[in-house]
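Q: Got a minute? One more chain.
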Amino acid sequence: MSVNYGSKRIVVGAHYGLRDWLSQRITGALMALFTLIVLAQLIFTRGPIGYDLWAGIFSAQWMKVLTFVVIASLLYHVWVGMRDVWMDYVQPVGIRLVCQVFTIVWLVGCAGWAIQVLWRL
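A: Always. Here it is, folded:
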């Protein structure tokens, strides 16, 4: 005979927990690693740090691709965080949907701008 004590918990929500937690950690680690790579290039470079040095760092195709992967990770990291903020703190569904759509449009615009900047150097 099974005995239940207390009320049965009803699970609600989108159930993104583990996937979002893991994606936040992975994208955060990728951004930290990228920061260390760029800092190492700056530290071990001789001469003044100016536009020419920055353009030189980001002129290699592998660095452009790596930078865009990090930017895409940053955008996903932001999306997960902002989606959680909108779901937790904006109760009216219509306003929450507008906030989420605005966030998506903003992040897609940022991705387009990043592509333009990276491949125009």
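A: The chain has a mean pLDDT of 90.
Q: Perfect, thanks.
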